[in-house]
Amino acid sequence: MSPFLFWIFALLMLVFGVAVVVNRNPVASALSLVVSFLGLAALFMSLDAYFIGIIQVLVYAGAVMVLFLFIIMLLDLRAEEGRRINWVASAGGIAVALILLIQIFLVVGHFKAARQPFPPLAGSTIDDVRNVGALLFSNYNLPFQIIGVLVLVATIGVVLLSRREPR
Amino acid sequence: MITLGDYLIVSGILFSIGFAGVMLRRNLIIILMSLELMLNAANLSLVAFSRFRVQPTGLPDYNVQVFVFFIITVAAAEVAVGLAILVALYRAHQTTDLKDVSSLKF
């Protein structure tokens, strides 16, 4: 992928990520998160991970964010108004996040192998879905089944948690 | 030429943004969304490494992509349960502000 496209999508993802955190209106935050996920899916495509990119759009942008928007709509969450910002606490939080960011920069900076270009892949088209699926159903069959049970348990838990108590 | 380090730096910045969101915001929905940002930052760095480690067959390391698939699934289940807890909390207290949920505070 050309560097220009990479930086466009990375900037899209990061700017709308900041918009998620900064916005007062929860609906605006949710929609910014959708755009951020689309930028991230584009970055996955640039890394030749086509299956993961499509799953990202389908599951995250398509299902998880729809769930978020449904909850915001059902609970009728309004935009925060008259919020008194505690500047000391905010400065402390931003300072901790900045320290984390600086540490990540230092670690990546010392990682010498990260400056090499990506090794070339064999072939121009990659059978992404087939290869991931083959691994998923052969080597990782047990974790796959456990994930199935986990999703079932999550569904049951959600139904139980949302029940109204009978009065 | 985009290198692995560029992807890792972008992933680190995204993670810090999500982290700042969890630390700074008091609205529970925004905190859950920032949590999703952090998980996706981890996914991005994992997929970058998957592309970086090309196997002798000439294909990327697909074990990592299977791991990312599991992370996406578990994150979706976690978001569902977290939002159900949020709905139950809202029904009990009529608020999603963290300041009003302090009954267990020491």
Describe this structure in words.
The complex is a heterodimer of chains A (about 170) and B (about 110). Chain A is mainly alpha-helical and about 170 residues long. Chain A has two domains: about 5-80 and about 85-125, NADH-ubiquinone/plastoquinone oxidoreductase chain 6, subunit NuoJ (Four Helix Bundle (Hemerythrin (Met), subunit A)); about 125-165. In chain A, about 75% of the residues lie in helices and about 0% in strands. Chain A is built from six helices and no strands. With about 110 residues, chain B is mainly α. Chain B is built from three helices and no strands. The mean pLDDT of chain B is about 90. At the A-B interface, helix 1, helix 2, helix 3, helix 4 and helix 5 of A face helix 1, helix 2 and helix 3 of B.
Summarize the structure.
Chain A has 167 residues and is mainly alpha-helical.
Taken in chain order, the helices and strands of chain B follow as: HHH
Number of domains of chain B: 1
CATH class of chain B reads Mainly Alpha
Largest beta sheet of chain B, briefly?
A: none
Q: What is the terminal-to-terminal distance of chain B?
A: 53 Å
Q: Strand fraction band of chain B?
A: under 5%
Count of separate DSSP helical elements of chain A: 6
Task: State the fourth-level CATH superfamily of the largest domain in chain A.
Answer: NADH-ubiquinone/plastoquinone oxidoreductase chain 6, subunit NuoJ
Features:
heterodimer; A: mainly alpha; Four Helix Bundle (Hemerythrin (Met), subunit A); B: about 110 residues; mainly alpha
Write the topology of this structure.
The complex is a heterodimer of chains A (167) and B (106).
Chain A: H1 3-22, H2 26-46, H3 50-75, H4 87-110, H5 128-138, H6 141-161
Helix pairs in contact in A: 1-2, 2-3
Chain B: H1 4-24, H2 28-52, H3 62-93
Helix pairs in contact in B: 1-2, 2-3
